[in-house]
Design a protein that fits this description.
By secondary structure, this protein is mainly α. 81% of the residues lie in helices and 0% in strands. 27% of the residues are buried.
Amino acid sequence: MFSNFDFGVIIRALPYLFYEGMSFTLMLTALSALGGLIFGTAIALMRLSGLKTLGRIAGLYVDFMRSLPLVLVIFWFYFLVPYIGQWLTGASRPISVGAFASSLITFIMFEAAYFSEIMRAGIQSISRGQPAAANALGLTYAQTMRYVVLPQAFRNMLPVLITQTIVLFQDTSLVYVLSITDFLGAASKVAQRDGRLVEMYLFAAIVYFTISCIASFGVRRLQARIAILR
């Protein structure tokens, strides 16, 4: 199988793979993680608010998103978002949103369900005595969460958040179903153009493996440091 292995096709494709493909993958991962973290924090606070209606709505959202395959959600948003745009703007036909916008919305909403559970666990790990002490000092609920609970919760759950972001980095390869040129999509295009499927898909696997392993090693180092601070 490797007798005709051609390293040259990989070397010639490196600028395209990393400047076009990997840069898009990293950008989509960063924007999705940031949006998912913000939206997920709001969902976690809804579940912990003590208001039953808000808690049930947030719980249903999390259960719904976590029960669906990601690739199905990508397709769903890709075809649904134009109709939502049409409904919001009153246009006569579906609004063209584009593959990137629909994929970004998909990942933010999908990852928010997972980030919210991480956030909820992190907030609940904080001793109840600290919010009570903050309330005794006259801090409101919002001030207590902002200045007392969330900073400590973020520190405790940072390794898990980074681990979920590594999973997100791997999941972004699913955007190939929308013909977006992420890293895997770029490798696939080169493979089909040059007829070098083995070289390109093997190289793509090595790159994903290397980046994920380095990030996982960083998470273990961070966990050890946080354990010392505790």
